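Quick one, probably user error.
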């Protein structure tokens, strides 16, 4: 069944190395094709998906996202959702994730909710949530123009290479020096990334609708080595004063070697990541559910010990009549 004349297009992004992701993507494509919607798939997933659908009712994505695509449905974990987000970012296309990973902080649905996914996407029945991103430029010593630039949804991290003992970094905020650290590295995180690398490095959890950044030294040999929460318009500069190179990573995916004397400039990105949500679920519930946090004894709800956990599992917020927290 061909739908090349379809007026609606949805991008389907999969973890191409996982059979479950391919199979679910194929099921989704067949389901929405029957309702007059054409799907676009990644070139490297085309053959695998074609083996599971009849008549190849889908097209292939281009390298640059087309703003006419109404949503990107992602089958995979948070890493796969990040890759899809990078593709969709400049075109402001919303991302809707179906979790096939472990924690799945960015995902909206689990696999057992497949039927709801199809119905809600076809009906445009979702709300949009915007999250800030960061841009990064690398200026070698004395250079007026950046030698390398990128964007990040979670974080930018400057790290020592291989067997180096430490790297030396001077961090500044809004062109004023903050501290010089001998450390394993320094990262700048968005609120979205605060539950990723920054979380592992001891940074605080930031609610995703908060407009702020984290500046986090990694294992710094210093008295002052605490994470710092910065204003969203802050400009962070990381000067590599170590005599040896370091590595700069964006979302743990794209990297470049940074030479001694280079300056890394991190600021708010020009584009925000748009997430599609099927319900306005409080982040508190998501946090409790994803990390399986112990909340027994909470005195809200009907007073039962498990009421908070039940609310988090159900994805619902307590009502005003439920009593004081």
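Nope, works fine. Designed sequence:
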């Amino acid at each position: 069944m061909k739908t090349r004349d379809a007026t609606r297009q949805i991008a389907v992004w999969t973890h191409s190395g996982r059979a479950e992701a391919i199979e679910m993507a194929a099921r989704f494509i067949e389901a929405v094709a029957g309702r007059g919607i054409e799907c676009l798939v990644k070139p490297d997933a085309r053959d695998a998906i074609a083996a599971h659908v009849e008549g190849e009712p889908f097209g292939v994505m281009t390298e640059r996202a087309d703003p006419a695509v109404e949503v990107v449905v992602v089958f995979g974990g948070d890493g796969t959702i990040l890759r899809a987000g990078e593709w969709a970012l400049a075109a402001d296309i919303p991302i809707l994730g179906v979790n096939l990973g472990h924690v799945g902080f960015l995902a909206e649905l689990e696999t057992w909710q497949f039927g709801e996914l199809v119905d809600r996407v076809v009906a445009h029945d979702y709300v949009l949530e915007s999250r800030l991103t960061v841009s990064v430029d690398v200026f070698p010593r004395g250079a007026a123009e950046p030698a390398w630039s990128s964007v990040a949804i979670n974080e930018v991290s400057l790290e020592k290479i291989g067997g180096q003992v430490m790297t030396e970094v001077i961090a500044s905020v809004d062109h004023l020096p903050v501290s010089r650290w001998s450390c394993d590295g320094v990262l700048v995180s968005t609120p979205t990334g605060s539950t990723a690398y920054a979380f592992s490095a001891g940074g605080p959890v930031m609610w995703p609708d908060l407009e702020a950044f984290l500046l986090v030294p990694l294992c710094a040999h210093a008295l002052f080595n605490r994470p710092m929460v910065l204003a969203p318009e802050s400009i962070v500069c990381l000067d590599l004063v170590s005599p040896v190179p370091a590595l700069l990573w964006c979302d743990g995916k794209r990297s470049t070697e940074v030479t001694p004397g280079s300056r890394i400039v991190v600021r708010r990105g020009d584009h925000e990541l748009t997430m599609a949500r099927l319900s306005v679920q409080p982040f508190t519930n998501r946090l409790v559910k994803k990390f399986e946090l112990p909340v027994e004894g909470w005195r809200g709800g009907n007073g039962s010990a498990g009421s908070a956990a039940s609310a988090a599992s159900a994805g619902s917020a307590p009502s005003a009549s439920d009593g004081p927290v």
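The two ends are 55 Å apart (CA to CA).
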